[in-house]
Amino acid sequence: MCRKARNAVETGTYHIIMRGSSEITLFKSDTDKDRFLNTIKKYQTTFRFKVLAYCIMSTHVHLLIASNGANLSKFMHGINLSYAIYYNKTYKRHGHVFSDRFKSKIVQSEPALKFVSAYIHNNPKDISGYKNKVEDYKYSSLGIYLGIHEDVLNIVDSSIILNYYDTNKIIARKNYFTFVKARQALKDSLSNTEQICDSLNNVYDEYNTLLLEIKNFELNKDHWQYTSGKSETTKRVKPEDIISFICNNTNINNYDLQIKYRRNTTEFRAFSVFLMRSFCDINFKNISSLLGGISVSALCNLCNKGYELIKSNSYYTNILTKFLKEYPA
């Protein structure tokens, strides 16, 4: 039987849940959890999505992600596969690590974002020692929201949700924490949170329909438009633009990029593949046809190499900065 197509929109925000296979503990140690966070950071750098909240438990993970124009299924598949390979290698096992494909639910409105983030941040309440101290749990973003823990990897964008509570950061943190604790007292369940989210999303849809009707009557919609404070990035760069940019800003040409085994152009190919995966809505098969038929596994390695070049080599960091100026989000 075919699986139901995932409900997704280009610039949507999603509550994502990933559960481990029934016979394993998905995260056996802090090292596993740290590895998962580093994997998220790696794919976030490539696909430029925003993480609004997270909580990593021993058997499952909750994420609140704004796709920011990226393909949700593509980067989540990469995160899951990368962690599964690490897990099986570390614990010398074979087979599935996750119980099924990840679950995702669209979160459309400001109130829904508040409820879902509070539910995620209250997840540690059932762990011994954290019932009344969920903010102390190391692998939840709540501590980052409240300034208790440092966001070492710079993964979380807490400003979007905190700005709903006050423009003053100290007051916003206090008000948000009060809301989180209030939801904990009400003992929110996942199903209850999803029902609330669905109701709020329906209100949001009805409101947008009303706005459309107002526009059709040629009234000034700008005075009525709901704005969330979120800025979205839509990928509009063509792969040909990236090849042209690389050629114009380096000492190589298009022909050099197409030659598979020329060592002095490997880094430029890696950088090109990374840019295409980050800014173009294409897969490795499409990229292969543009770069002389390179295999998918080789393209994966090149993309990883491109990521490392930007992290460690100022030459490529400067070229990326120039690219972002020429093709602003």
Automatic annotation (TrEMBL):
<dbReference type="GO" id="GO:0004803">
    <property type="term" value="F:transposase activity"/>
</dbReference>
<feature type="domain" description="Transposase IS200-like">
    <location>
        <begin position="9"/>
        <end position="123"/>
    </location>
</feature>
<protein>
    <submittedName>
        <fullName>REP element-mobilizing transposase RayT</fullName>
    </submittedName>
</protein>
<dbReference type="InterPro" id="IPR010921">
    <property type="entry name" value="Trp_repressor/repl_initiator"/>
</dbReference>
<dbReference type="Pfam" id="PF01797">
    <property type="entry name" value="Y1_Tnp"/>
</dbReference>
<dbReference type="InterPro" id="IPR036515">
    <property type="entry name" value="Transposase_17_sf"/>
</dbReference>
<dbReference type="InterPro" id="IPR002686">
    <property type="entry name" value="Transposase_17"/>
</dbReference>
<dbReference type="GO" id="GO:0006313">
    <property type="term" value="P:DNA transposition"/>
</dbReference>
<dbReference type="GO" id="GO:0043565">
    <property type="term" value="F:sequence-specific DNA binding"/>
</dbReference>
